[in-house]
């Protein structure tokens, strides 16, 4: 009986092996398929969680030849960087590194290891959050642009006046004239520098009567302080001397200056920098007019009449 059974097993061993081998192969294929499905399921679930929220804000970093992104709350990123916010969970919308947040594409471990030298999500997220480029959505970009535009127009408005009335133009008027001369703010360049360029153009074109607003100041110096500082340090920052008087012991100068030079004069005359070039009690500066303009010289009048 045993002999017969042994012969049957021997004869059919190839079939048995084939059956078991096929079963194992199917099991392996099944495991791969399930794992793949689970991975895609998790990605879909992850994307479902972040979808509709990614426009809150993104921080992007290019590392090597790859781009990585994290989804975060826009208003919290700056708080995190300035150390106002210390809980990273309050900053991140989801603790995951993406290669494309808007499409829900998660960064794989091979890319993370190659570019960051680690697959530790926490470490990589911290690096992107601290050093990455903040991406703004359309609403935030428009708000930032409007803020820059308002700042730009206000700088011009505060630095310029109508030389006839000595009154400042409202920002809306400045904007209208700038449109006429086709000067438009570039949001990628410093606002203040562009404002100064715009002022030069407005003064040159004179579409409306406009001049750079200056300050009229009265400087009082002792004879010692005058001889020590006036010619080399004070006079060069005065655009125009309106009056100059002295009684032998005290000198008084009334002049027109650019507002940017006011702090320079205060520092020197009131000795706030500790240089002791003007001793305590030997000098003072007083603002007489915040909307002053330089008086035209005879040469200026001759040039204007010639033109």
TrEMBL record:
Taxonomy, superkingdom: Eukaryota
Domain Ribosome maturation protein SDO1/SBDS N-terminal positions: 59-141
Domain Ribosome maturation protein SDO1/SBDS C-terminal positions: 215-290
Membrane topology: Single-pass membrane protein
SUPFAM superfamilies: FYSH domain, Hypothetical protein AF0491, middle domain, Subunit X (non-heme 7 kDa protein) of cytochrome bc1 complex (Ubiquinol-cytochrome c reductase)
Pfam families associated with the record: SBDS_C, SBDS_domain_II, SBDS_N, UCR_UQCRX_QCR9
The UniProt record lists the keyword S-adenosyl-L-methionine: no
Family to which the UniProt record says this protein belongs: Belongs to the SDO1/SBDS family. Belongs to the UQCR10/QCR9 family.
Protein name: Complex III subunit 9
Source species of the chain: Candida albicans (Yeast)
Gene3D superfamilies xrefs: 3.30.70.240, Cytochrome b-c1 complex subunit 9 (1.20.5.260), Ribosome maturation protein SBDS, N-terminal domain (3.30.1250.10), SBDS protein C-terminal domain, subdomain 1 (1.10.10.900)
């Amino acid at each position: 009986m045993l002999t017969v059974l042994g012969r049957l097993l021997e004869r059919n061993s190839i079939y048995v092996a084939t059956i078991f081998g096929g079963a194992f192969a199917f099991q392996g294929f099944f495991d791969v398929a399930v794992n793949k499905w689970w991975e895609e399921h998790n990605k879909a679930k992850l994307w479902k969680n972040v979808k509709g929220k990614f426009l809150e804000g993104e921080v992007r970093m290019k590392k090597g030849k790859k781009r990585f992104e994290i989804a975060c709350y826009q208003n919290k990123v700056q708080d995190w960087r300035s150390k106002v916010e210390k809980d990273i969970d309050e900053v991140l919308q989801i603790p995951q590194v993406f290669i494309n947040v808007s499409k829900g594409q998660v960064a794989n471990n091979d890319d993370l290891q190659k570019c960051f030298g680690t697959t530790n999500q926490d470490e990589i997220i911290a690096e992107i959050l601290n050093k990455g480029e903040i991406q703004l959505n359309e609403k935030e970009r428009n708000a930032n642009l409007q803020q820059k535009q308002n700042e730009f127009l206000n700088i011009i408005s505060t630095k310029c006046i109508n030389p006839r009335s000595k009154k400042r133009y409202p920002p809306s008027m400045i904007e209208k004239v700038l449109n006429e001369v086709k000067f438009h703010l570039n949001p990628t360049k410093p606002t203040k520098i562009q404002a100064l360029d715009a002022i030069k153009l407005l003064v040159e074109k004179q579409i409306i009567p406009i001049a750079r607003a200056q300050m009229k100041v009265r400087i009082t110096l002792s004879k010692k302080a005058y001889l020590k500082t006036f010619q080399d340090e004070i006079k060069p920052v005065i655009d125009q001397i309106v009056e100059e008087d002295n009684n032998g012991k005290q000198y008084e100068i009334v002049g027109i200056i650019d507002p940017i030079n006011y702090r320079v004069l205060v520092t020197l005359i009131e000795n706030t920098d500790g240089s002791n070039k003007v001793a305590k009690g030997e000098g003072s500066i007083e603002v007489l007019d915040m909307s002053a303009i330089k008086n035209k010289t005879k040469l200026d009048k001759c040039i204007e009449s010639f033109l």
